Amino acid sequence: METVPIPRLRLRVTATAETIIRSGHPWLFADSIREENRAGRLGELAVIFDRNDKFLAIGLFDPESPIRVRVLHTGNPATIDTAWWQGRLKQTLARREGLFDAQTNGYRCVHGESDGWPGLVLDRYDRTFVLKLYTAAWLPRLDEVVGCIRTSLHPQRLVLRLSRNIQSPAKEHGHRDDGQLLLGEKPDDPVTFLESGLRFESDVLQGQKTGFFLDQRENRRLVESLARGRDVLNAFSFSGGFSLYAARGGATSVTDLDISEHALAGARRNFALNQAAPGVAACRHDCVRVDALEWLAAKPVRKFDLIVLDPPSLAKREAERARAIGAYRRLNADGLRWLAPGGVLVAASCSAHVSTEEFFGAVRQAARESARPFTEWQTTGHAPDHPATFSEAQYLKAIYLRFG
Q1: Model pTM score
Q2: Domain ranges of the chain
């Protein structure tokens, strides 16, 4: 029996959605679809037409997600084939050219929607690469994506990481697991990489995100420039990234606070990896396993000259936004009680649901309420390998305040 070809999935959307897509936004929500010529399948290409039946965009379809289509291309019609994918990856990698020298071989190669790969990130840790998926729509196309990565980057090893919400469908569609090796062999030892000449471990198989918080590199460099001769407190320290930079920058001491002994053990190992650096070897490094929020809320028992407050996201959904703004104010007010005269506060947020203005406002309010004179030294946003081209992608912000 002759197989009847399945017609291309065709969608028509609301006038508002048309405008949003034309503006470059990469998401089409289910409730914006007016017409669908047939039921769509996971990962297939959906063509979106405007009210005049002209091509508007094409993207990856997910029948189970509120974000029904992740837009890949707008404007004139395009053929999305292997050559197209390879060309897009080449363009994405070209945007990183010149950003890093031989002293940094850990960075983000592909940053999701903002690089034209909605719901997909690719991080490099020396010769090991980690591909993380945030939408199940990529699962049917995984082999094609891996082929492009192999051709362009020649990885020694490629690890698949999956966001929690797609781990079940990943098992159903292709028996894919979080931490699965797509290329190469499982490492016998922790993967190490260079960042600004410092060596770090990355737990690429089970660690948070893809194994390390690469997005804070630029802020770590700034902390290094401020650390000489200071006693440093790094709350929510994770594996000690800020601490190690501060030590190399000449900090007298660094104290790490984290609730996870696993994270603190990683910080100790990272310090051990860098004992050849004179500043690291000379710096006293203390690790305290504790809930940093509770520790900071207690009566101060000593003062620090430089305090870094970089908590996990305090607003994982929009409904938590107002509460999180208040929590940021209280956290920074508590932190300031531990700050010595002449000290520097570095406050960071990775909460996408709290805007830059809201976060900076909360920190400035805490500073004013301390009744201490202060100056605002600098604010920062996304690192160049983590671009943010639409509002929902803008999550990272930090502010530096000097106090009298």
Answers
A1: 0.94
A2: 9-74, 82-191, 213-403
